[in-house]
Amino acid sequence: MSSVTRASLDQKLALAKRCSHEGVMAGAKAAVLATVATAIPTLASVRMLPWARTNLNPTAQALIISTAAGMAYFIVADKTVLASARKNSLYASNRSNMTA
Question: Which of 13, 27, 37, 48 could form a disulfide with 77 if both were Cys (CB 3.0 to 4.6 A apart)?
Answer without folding.
Answer: 27
